[in-house]
């Protein structure tokens, strides 16, 4: 996020910068707190991390959903983005893992769900 930017603004900006897609946010669906042990990049020390993520339901502004990915991982490797059916989510190494179950039960009228994990 950039200073002064809301979570919604950051989400839309990052989505466009990394995929070329323009979508509209419908609503906040999940708040995810994740506690995990990470690794400092300059030192091989383990650090305790607390990640807070907001997941939004979105809809496209156009029918063309082809992704133009220019995204790279922290190690410099090219990232590949792919649309996958919700029913097949569990077959991929995808995070957060709780989406495999939670997205199948999501409806337009669902309340915002807060999930805490240690992944």
Average of the residue pLDDT scores: 88
Give the structural class. Answer: alpha+beta
Helix percent band: 10-25%
- Which ranges are low-confidence, i.e. pLDDT below 50, for 5 or more consecutive residues? none
Biggest sheet, open or closed, and with what strands and sense? 3 strands, mixed
The order of strands across the largest sheet is 2-1-3
Radius of gyration: 16 Å
Order of helices and strands: HEEHE
Determine the CATH superfamily.
Nucleoside Triphosphate Pyrophosphohydrolase
Please count the beta strands (DSSP E, at least 2 residues each).
3
| Count of alpha/pi helices | 2
Shape: globular
Measured by DSSP, the beta-strand proportion falls in: 25-35%
Q: Please, could you describe this protein's structure?
A:
By secondary structure, the protein is α+β, with helices and mostly antiparallel strands. The chain has one domain (7-117): Nucleoside Triphosphate Pyrophosphohydrolase (Alpha-Beta Complex). The chain is built from two helices and three strands, in the order H-E-E-H-E. It has helices spanning 7-19, 99-102, and strands at residues 23-39, 46-60, 113-117. The protein has a three-stranded mixed β-sheet. This is Nudix hydrolase domain-containing protein. Pfam families: NUDIX (PF00293). InterPro entries: NUDIX_hydrolase-like_dom_sf, NUDIX_hydrolase_dom.
């Amino acid at each position: 996020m950039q200073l002064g930017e809301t979570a919604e603004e950051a989400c839309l900006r990052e989505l466009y910068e990394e995929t070329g897609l323009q979508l509209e946010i419908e609503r906040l669906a999940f708040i995810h707190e994740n506690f995990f042990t990470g690794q400092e990049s300059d030192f091989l020390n383990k650090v305790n991390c607390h990640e807070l993520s907001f997941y939004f339901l979105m809809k496209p502004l156009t029918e063309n959903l082809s992704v133009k990915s220019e995204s790279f991982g922290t190690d410099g490797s090219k990232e590949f983005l792919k649309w996958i059916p919700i029913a097949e989510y569990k077959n991929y190494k995808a995070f957060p893992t709780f989406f495999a179950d939670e997205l199948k039960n999501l409806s337009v009228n669902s309340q915002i769900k807060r999930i805490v994990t240690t992944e």
